[in-house]
Design a protein that fits this description.
Helices cover 44% and strands 22% of the residues. By secondary structure, the chain is α+β, with helices and mostly antiparallel strands. It has a five-stranded antiparallel beta sheet. Strand 9 and strand 10 form a beta hairpin. The longest helix has 19 residues. The N and C termini lie far apart (76 Å). GO terms for molecular function: DNA-binding transcription factor activity.
């Protein structure tokens, strides 16, 4: 356990440069006293780590010192190639770089662990796009990614889903791959509205041009935290109404299999009735979507409210009967 922590400490200093004892303790979840002892152990082992005193000081390695990737355990070696997503790297314009990085990682591993890593590569494949959906065609994805890496401002022509294209000048902060769809998070440049970052779908960018200007990325921006909160708010905002329905157990199971996970809680909360059916209040996006959703259940679902939705389901059922009666 201590050997693993010493290696982690060494790699933190190698990858990040100067770090204080407090920062190292927070990263490794130990006390600062433990960090002092670990640094002494590294120095005794011949690792050129030294302390800089005063304000802005901390621990750092002698400039130019690098360590090879030794000390990996079996699970860590297995994970080396689980982190590689060739399709995503290629779409970002980094396919060749990822292949080269993987070759270097393999070369740095001991023979036994190299075999394990190669076995994972041969036996695991990630297919990111969802079923029955073609992956997004985002011709300007590489340009957007370059702006993210280099913190450069870009001017884009963007197609909003419900209106004409708009021109935007953006400072891209990060990229997200969601079920085969690429999104990017960006600030308007300059950010005078105070609304903070916004989310854009990369496939809707028709033009992307660099402005030659650079921007400063906010120090407190956390892409993963932003995406989690934005996704939750986005899903909640989709549902504009709630339907009161009676479902048979088969109808509930059918809805569960076809509706988004965000609605599963409403189905789980359904209350049983004496006739064996379940009373549920199910959110829906639009009357058109809800009509199709409940019609597919046939007699296993009965809409009670709203009245307009109930009438639409009745009309759809009658139209179906007329079609087959012909």
């Amino acid at each position: 356990m201590r050997a693993s922590r010493l290696l982690s400490l060494l790699l933190l200093l190698q990858n990040r440069g100067r770090l204080t004892a407090a920062q190292l303790a927070a990263e490794l979840e130990v006390s600062e006293r433990t960090i002092y002892r670990d640094v002494e152990s590294l120095s005794a082992a011949g690792i050129p780590v030294y302390a800089e005193r005063g304000v802005g000081g901390g621990y750092r390695l002698v400039d130019g010192y690098r360590t090879r990737l030794t000390g990996l355990n079996d699970g860590e070696a297995d994970s080396v190639f689980l982190t590689a997503v060739p399709q995503a790297a290629a779409e970002l314009g980094l396919g060749a770089e990822m292949a080269a990085a993987n070759r270097k990682l393999l070369a740095a591993l001991p023979d036994s662990m190299r075999e394990r890593a190669e076995r994972v590569r041969d036996r695991f494949h990630l297919d990111a796009p969802a079923w029955f959906r073609e992956p997004d065609q985002a011709p300007h994805l590489a340009a957007i990614a370059s702006a993210v890496w280099e913190q450069r401002v870009i001017a884009v022509r963007y197609r909003r889903w419900n209106s004409d294209p708009v021109e935007r000048v953006l400072a891209p902060l990060g990229l997200v791959l969601k079920s085969g769809l690429w999104y990017f998070v960006a600030l308007p440049h300059p950010d005078t509205s105070g609304r903070g970052p916004r989310t854009f779908r990369a496939a809707r960018v028709d033009e992307a041009t660099g402005t030659g200007e650079r921007f400063s990325r906010p120090d407190d921006f956390d892409l993963a935290a932003y995406w989690e909160e934005w996704s939750r708010e986005f899903e909640a905002g989709l549902y504009t109404g709630t339907a009161r329905v009676l479902l048979t157990p088969a109808g509930r199971d059918l809805l569960r299999a076809t509706c988004p996970p965000a609605l599963h809680g409403a189905l789980d909360a359904a209350e049983p009735r004496p006739d064996g059916r379940l009373h549920a209040e199910v959110p829906f996006e639009s009357l058109e979507q809800a009509t199709a959703q409940f019609t597919q259940c046939g007699p296993d679902a009965e809409v009670l409210e709203p009245a307009e939705l109930r009438q639409r389901v009745v009309e759809r059922a009658r139209a179906t009967v007329r079609r087959y009666a012909e």
